[in-house]
Amino acid sequence: MEAKKLIRKQIFSARKACSDQEVEQWSRQLTERLISLPEFQEARQILVYADYNHEVMTGFLIQEAWKAGKEVAVPKVDGKDMIFYKLTDFSQLEPGYFGIPEPSQGEIAEWEDALMIMPGVAFDKQNHRVGYGGGFYDRYLEKHPSLKRIAAAFEFQILPEVPTEPTDISPEIIVTEKQCIRI
């Protein structure tokens, strides 16, 4: 747990040091890389986080999904769980859990054959993930094991090795602005 805390502190500091322009440019590059993947092209439904605080910006990805005729849903925290709500317009989002944009209401998306785009703090080349510490994605993925999983991260979030726990559910692919890492 201490190692994860140190990693979070290190990555949050690096994220804070990035300019808005860098975050936007890298997010656009990452989006181009991600939408070219067969996993994205074949998916009809996308579960994706709404970005916050210099995370990889997902708005570009959401717009590309809509343009391609895909359904999109974003999470809302409900106690210890996440519920994904169908998103048809960015105006549905408002500050929620810890100020993170969440849908205020809408149609619940219970999609079992969707592609999930997951956030994270840090990753390694074995596709291990350090999240934010709430366990929301691990709990959701445990209940929905058939979802395909792609993590969106900036290159500086890829570390030589990150600590793991038995309850961690890793992404199958990590996409950065420079590369795709597959298990």
What this model shows, in words?
With 183 residues, the protein is α/β, with parallel strands linked by helices. The protein has one domain (2-175): Rossmann fold (3-Layer(aba) Sandwich), CATH 3.40.50.10420. It is 30% helix and 23% strand. The protein has helices at 2-17, 20-35, 38-42, 59-67, 136-143; strands spanning 45-48, 71-78, 81-86, 93-95, 101-103, 115-118, 122-123, 129-130, 148-152, 173-175, 180-182. A seven-stranded mixed β-sheet has the order 3-2-1-6-9-10-11. Helix 2 packs parallel to helix 4 (59-67). The longest helix is centred in the first third of the chain and has 16 residues, at 2-17. The two termini are 24 Å apart. 34% of the residues are buried.
Task: Summarize the model shown.
Helix content is 30%, strand content 23%. By secondary structure, the chain is an alpha/beta fold.
